[in-house]
Amino acid sequence: MTAEPVEAIKLFGTEEPSPPAPILRAGSLTAEFDAGNLRHIRVGGVEVIRAVSFIVRDRNWGTYNPVISGLTTDETTDGFTVRYEATTGDDSQSFRYRAVIEGSADGHLTFRCEGEAVTDFLTNRTGFVVLHSAGVAGLPVEIEHTGGEKVAGQFPELIDPVQPMMDLRALTHEAAPGLRVTCRMEGDTFEMEDQRNWTDASYKTYVRPLALPWPYTLEAGSRLEQAVTLTVTGTASAQSGSSAGGVTVTFGDAQGPAPQLGLGYDPDEAESAKAAAETLAQVKPHHLICHHDPRRGHDRSTLEAAATLARTLGAVPWLEAVIVEVENFEAEVAALGDTAAELGSPFEVVMLSPASDLKCTLPGSVWPPAAPADALFRAARKAFPDARLGGGMFSYFTELNRKRPPLRYLDLVGFTTSALVHAGDDISVMEGLESLSAITASAREIAGGHPLAVGPSAMGMRMNPYGDAPMENPRNIRQAMNRNDPRQRGLLGAAWTLGYYSHMARGGASAVAFGGLTGPHGIVHARQGWPQPWYDDNGGLFPVFHVLRGLSALSGRTMKALEISDPSAVQGIAVEADASTELWLANLTGREQTVSLPRPALQTAVLDAASFGQASRTADLLGRMTSEDSSTLTLGPYSTIHVRL
Predict the structure, then answer these.
(1) pTM over 0.90
(2) φ, ψ (nearest 5 deg) of residue 553
(3) How many Cα neighbours within 13 Å face the side chain of 358?
(4) b/e 214-232 (16+ beta carbons within 10 angstroms → b)
(5) Is the four-CA dihedral 591, 592, 594, 595 of positive or negative sign?
(6) What is the pLDDT of residues 578-603, one digit of tens each?
(7) What's the average model confidence in pLDDT over 225-240?
(8) Which residues pair with 125 in a beta bridge?
(9) 356: closest CA among 418, 403, 417, 411?
């Protein structure tokens, strides 16, 4: 065994640097300058706009990382000016642009870009994107259209499946009582989508209407000029957050049962999962979601292997089957049912999806041919008479929101998510957890009282509905649309998983499944075709293994309402125990957090940087609790703590 890994590997699974973004200041106006773009634009400590970014995307909606040069920053007490040049693209195409960002103490901020296609440039989107925080849900907004007409509108509360606002030139809303912000967007026609669909905690106003053809080509030498201007008026007190006093946790009344915890399984993992089965069984998952897609060569043998593996893990086999045929789908479903019957009908839950629904159909586009949903599930009832039937989407909540299943034939409704659809940085990954309450509320409305079965979900993408495939990651970096994200192996991944489960539990999900076993979304090491620093020399358990093992033991137990003073910093779940309360908390930040409990802890067990090495080889680490007598806990960066009190 080699020495302990460096801190970055423990936290993120990669040594790729991620320095904190510098803060630009102009009086009470502040903005984080991150890779050429602006985040968390605040006035007097109140966030007025979540982000303003100039982005360049490829034909698969992947976002290029710009190479910035000539960066200069001039700051005075009254304002700042930032200038830089950037080049972006790949081996086949290139686009360059010049940016100027100006902020002033009177509440004005302008971000201008002038760009040029160096070569013919194939893109799905090139231009500005503005993010309004999901915290404005339900609030009024004044909309100015490109023709100058102004109308009253509202940021949607339930997640809008398409585009809540179109033909936009400017949006004006109150960021806080007494603080008014106008966002003006020039250089093209803008429109808005509700990014909570993809677990982004924001509404996104973007350039170039989706009704226009895409991908489109910017011809070599063609130029574009765009600008976003913010104007803030009024005053408001700073929003509360994690302060010097730390985070306070209090308990409320008893709630419903904690969701059943499941894991995902892809037949590509067959050999490595079988080799690690004894270790994986210690998680004790309630169910194993077995993916089946005939287009990938899956057949009777893969179904049999999946059912056998589930039994080895002590899990209930669930089937997630892609239906390829359009005209002859009844025969395909019947044959699948016959095969399952020959295997002893092992799948207690059967979820079906037409193959075409694994790809996105954008608003206004024609839906591709697919088996009719009603007829598909009528056929499934005949083919799987004793199974519970699940419908919805194998891809993301977005697609469920845009194409809703026939509830009268179903026993449950499902969907999955990824944290990396639009951005790959640590802050965006964790901020996305804020969207989950809206997702569960919207999903409950769609499900009409049917149980919600979420997953298998992970930070990384298991499929790309918006392009050919997720991004491979041979350089082990943070990036949007990663299939194999390094943070799956780090403490951040474990903390994200606890936060995700906690939100879904509060939102009423009856079952929540995560990622995989040994593959790109795995929980134990197995050698792969991409680097896994430190683990490739040592093997062992990823930190997320311990969180899943702990959460699995909570399945079905009565939850207690949990109030957390700063839910963006700390998340968790509490359940009733015999004469005590069992509490799981995760630090969602890279900063140490102090947590105040309503009464002293009796026992604790911690997963953090100090215990990382031991965690890689000790399956019951978070079950080995030590005595405690304190109502104040300290959580290191991205650490998880198991508490009895």
Answers:
(1) yes
(2) -70, -15
(3) 20
(4) beeebeeeeebebebbbbb
(5) positive
(6) 788 999 999 999 999 999 999 999 99
(7) 83
(8) none
(9) 403
